[in-house]
Protein 1
Amino acid sequence: MKKAVLILAAAAVTGTGFSQVSIDPEAGLNIASIRTKLGNNDASNSDSKTGFSVGAGVTLPIYKGLYVKPGISYQMLGGTTEILGVESATTMHYLRVPVNLGYSLKLSDKAGAIFAEAGPYIGMGLAGKTKVTGLSNITIEKDITFGSKVDETKAFDWGFNFGLGYETPWGVYIKGGYGLGLGNMSNMNNTTMTHNNWNIGVGYRIKI
């Protein structure tokens, strides 16, 4: 009976991508923006700001190519604006904890696998700074304070991740994705400000 169970388990993962637990460190590049909605006006996006990300996840196979991947990462987010010659650049640093559901499809032993992931995340603001440059090239920098006051920024964030990737037969993978922020970081009435970011990253699966 024990042998039959092992044979069935082996057959279940044949032809799929991930068949064992792995720790997946990865690093990447963010192209981030801040989406703002004032009252009943249409929402607008800031210009993009480039940042980086670094973190790690744990791939936990469920059945065939289906898996769950919790993780933790550092994310540099923000955005830039220019109004009447005055430039403003906001940089924010977050710790994020995503829990993604994924599926991997093995192409062949030599071709590797393709995979897709999606799921929610929660985040916590660590630090931030706004830099404003005026017409006379005078720059003023101000640290962002997290809290519940009107002139402060909410630290808690949440949203959803979506990603597609390709894994080589050697465990190296490349992934592109999008983070849709839904947590309002503004404490002002009738104002909603959320993070959005595209990401491309490289990682390596350490099977354990």
Note: The chain has one helix and eleven strands.
Protein 2
Amino acid sequence: MRRRSRLDIWTFVLVAAWGILIALLIWPLSSILRSSLLDNDTGAFSLVHYFQIATIKAYQRAVGNTLLAGFGGMTGALLLGVTLAFLTTRFHIYGRALIQTLAVVALVSPPFIGAYSWIVLFGASGVVRKGLDAIGISIPPLYGAAGVILVFAFKFFPHVFLITSGALASINRSVEEAAESLGVSPTKRLFTVTFPLILPAISASALLTFVLSIADFGTPRIIGRDFNVLATEAFNLYGSEVGGNPGMASALSIVLIVLSMIIVFGQRWVLRKNVYHSNMIKKPERKQVRGFKAVGVHVLAYAIVLIGALPAIIVVLFSFRRTSGPVFQPGVSLQSYERVISTISDPIWNTLIFSSTAVVAIVITGTLIGYLISRRPGIATGALDAILMVPYVVPGIVMGIAFITRFNEPPLALTGTGLIIVMAVFIRRLPYSARSVAAALKQVGPNLEDAAVSLGYSPGKAFVKVTVPLILPGIMAGALMSFITAMNELSSSLVLYVGSTITMPVRIYLSVMDGEYGTASALSTILLAMTVTAVYAAFHLSGRKESALL
């Protein structure tokens, strides 16, 4: 085997990668931990903030509400996503491509847009509620815990659908056929054979949806009303210019991170030692169903994806309605778009500039880190890989507070600049690129690169000239997914923005909170159009929906 020099360009890349993660992840988050352990009055070490979380009912409710939203959203998303995945992989359904497209539409629309759409339909002045009132049917507005969980379930089920669909399609049909030949009923076979084989996929999607649910700020803020969670409480405490309590906000943030980490380690504990695979002999087949069973399968599958895509559809339709404050008027109009273009176009440009700048840095850094993880195994790269998990479990609101705490004073006084938003987006979305590149490298052997080095190429030149072209689809998929999520970033931007650096998600959020539903609809439609365009490009370049989105 060819011996590599201990000190080559990749050694310096490794040092630089650690420097970036320390400066933009570990150092800012350490300020949150430090702030949570200091008394506000004396500045001395104290656990008073954590004691207050354990004893004050408002904070206890926030913790309980966070867990309720997390487990409620996770359970709803699992029920919807696994059901849809099972239907589409086990039965012939007409329009499977349409179902997948609608699921992706539900996936790429920001969660807070979903919350806003449900308000348009079932809020205090909702269109559906007003229509039902006209015929004598009165229903309460959809606010509070039920509304938050409903939005989370229909927002996040596409993650479950895409992950479990791949797992169900990889099951060895012989195992299920063996159970059937032994007289096991279809229902029992489903729970004793099929689901255990896809438990890693189910647990991975459960972990993802739980973390996404407890980290979400916009949905409980918009539709929760008095249903406060840790993210909204932390924002309220830190965002108050008069009488703010950054120490308590930091303590709540730490609790939020700990909850996420408990679920992460819990998932790994559940999967420990057990084997969940079988050798692929026969691929699963889709059954042709007829009669009432066929109708039921199609109705259920389409109902799930149509309701999931409903928020995006409603936003687009209502962006062309006349508005008077929070009330939509009859008739088609471009009034909202005219207002956006003439008076508030800056958020559009800020979003494009900040996202593009962050993604350029993400692609370069993520590609190099992905290579280190895949090709240069060792203690340092293993630790680097583990640290890359942190941005997944740190909510955006926490990252925003960490950045504004750490970069608020000279010589690194970046508060109020566009750079601090770019930095926050960069570190939050870096794992997408690094993971995508690492996955692509697993499918490309090192032989060609080694041959190039043996012919006189330096390691860096061999990487650029030989390896990068081979993994370009993976690089582009990670880049576009980073761009999609960067454009839709709300939580950290809401903490870090000032008037001149406001982005589209922040402006949409503020418009909803101010009752400017027409403006919110128009901006949301523009944001959705930009996102769908990026998703289409990701599909085209990656060749697989799963690789582009996960």
Note: The first helix runs from residue 9 to 36.
Protein 3
Amino acid sequence: MKKINTALPRQLFSLLGLAGLLHTTAGWAQGNVAVSENDFLDEMPIVLSVSRLPQRLDETPGAVTLLDRDMIRRSGARDVPDLLRLVPGFQTSMSFEADAPQASYHGVFGHYSGRIQVLVDGRSVYSTYVAGSVAPGLMSVALEDIERIEVLRGSNSVAYGARAMLGVVNIVTRHTAATLGASARVNQGENGIQDTRLGLGWRLQNSSMRLGVDQQGDDGLTGANGHNRVRRVNFRSDWRTLGDTDVQLRAGWMDIDAGRGIAELHEPLRDTSYDSSFVQVDWNKVLSPEQDLALMFAHNQESYRDISPFPLIPGLNFDFSGTARNDSLTAQHTLRLSPAVRMVWGAELRRESVTSLPVYNTSEALVTDFTRLFAHAEWRLRPDLLLNAGAMAEHSSASGASLAPRLMLNWHVAPGQTLRAGMARSFRPPSEFETSGDVRYAANGKVFEIFYLARGNVAPEKVLTRELGYYGSFSWLNSNLDVRLFDEVMSGLIQVKNYDAQVDGESFTDIRDYVNGDSLTLRGLELQWAGRPWPGAQLGFNHSYTKLFFPNPPTKETLASTMPESASSLFFSQQFSNGWTFSMSHQNSNPFRLQRTGNYKQYISRTDWRLSKTLLVGRNAGEIALTVQNQGPAQADFYKSFAFERRAYVSLRLDN
């Protein structure tokens, strides 16, 4: 197979030509027309999660997709994974077969999505028990509670550590002061869709609070063992103790009941249950106009139940049940060192523990401690030139020390036109299961099969990312354009490898272990364009093109088709003056391999539409809507015999 040329692909330098064109077109030169910072301070969104500093969208060290409340509502999506399919470079699945509906960025390299970080109000929500999967965390918030979602497309271990290897999804919930009063929503429709939500917000002296209770349910994918139900309770309180101090308390509980299995010997039909609960406390103090201090403590617990009998051997059960918990304490200091330099630095202590006799062959808790030190500086070299530099040093009691640096330069070549260039290094340590998994099938004191026996000879995965980007704002159609050209070199991909061994005097074959296997390079382009061309209208177009290269033939041919080479999405919405709103989205991609399909590949061609009418119920605003998902042929999802077919449902909503 063809060797990799590790130099940046020639396409990456096309933006340099664009820089020259914009430079000439704008008639700008350092010596004659000064570019003031005010030229760029028009209506520009502020993002919070990329570097841990509040930054304008054209000054972040990476490409960001923003999904705001209005777009979320108009999309017709029922959960966060369904929203993320409209983000360039993302692949999603609506299946509950692995754990919950999933979203991954730049390829699905296993049954679980564990190479991106998902935050809810700054709290990491990946599953400690389910191999670092972010799927349960993506389901932990009702869409009505979300203010916006910030998606960084690119490595960000420098800000959030190990799990942010390929990107970060930051879900920001609504402030309680904006949700006072009662709210309700009901969805009812095809495929057993039954969703309900009740919310209540109130004020108490210097604090405001919100309690939300909801349930989401349907019959799952056609061909799957459906009847999936998600139940959630979320509480938030915002308390201003003094003029310069804020305290926020969040707590919640979620339960996912799902049917799984495909009626095969090792995949019997069964019911599973996943429960999680959390408490989060944030303390923020303004020390001066130039600096502030933030502390966050978070505690999370998980419980998973997945048991099914093996029909051929009485007394033998397939059991993957267990519990997990994690605690984290983060301190963060933000300050301005000079008129040109801002900085944030801090530390995190995190402890994760997993307990499962059937999965680890021990009733003892397996504990991993993390210590993280991070710092990021933003230096305005000139009014038109901004340097972002940062690093995170992380030590894990399981995998040792790692360092994740990043350097990015943003150049405002003309008013509303910005180029960025930089590089970053990120990593992902193996999960507890990848280092210590020990799954044995036994009955009446006899071991019949060893399914997994990890030997711990696995190191963290690494990725070196080099990218060029462009961000432009245009009066034409009131639009903006973001382009990302990337070269991502992944090394030591953690993969399953079978081996034979003598265990306790018995011979066993095809035991599964995890090892560092293939290395690969992803090169490509991502483009997102969004505009508001006339009153009441939203129009968006996304496209991604990615090629995979291997320095050596991959151990599995299916690895080469883990993501589509080309994928696009289109979104249009029009709000009319009489209270009606029509929205439509279309998603299209080249064929790619699904998670449980071997060599089978599936292309995506999905169209959704939504028609809604605003209502006035007393003093409260409301809405009634009809949503149709996948108006067209069924799409295979997760497994070749599972299909996402057309679904139509009616929504009735009453706002605060």
Note: Residues 14-25 form the longest helix (12 residues).
Protein 4
Amino acid sequence: MAYYITKVLVTAVLVVLISEISKRSSFIGAVLASVPLTSVLALLWLYIDTGDIDRASELASSVFWLVIPSLALFVAMPLLLKQGVNFYLSLAVSIGITTTCYWLMIIVLHHYGVDL
């Protein structure tokens, strides 16, 4: 149980730290947020938990393919905000667009024989 609490605390502290840094410098916050921190932590925790190189490799591969549709959020969100759309509505619409892009990417990859 202590191990799971440690995992949660380490992950949460990093997210809060990035959020606090972003208040002072959006550039530095963006640099830190753009580092695939969540993916690195997921790979690390998966490998520590299982010791399974193949599972870590599969996760890294899947993350690679799914980074592409995730970029839709970072295109849609600023466009909507610049149009004067409310922050929360912009976020919700951007998440919807991103979800659609994930779904489309999975369909396209499956069509070409890539199963995640």
Note: The mean pLDDT is 92.
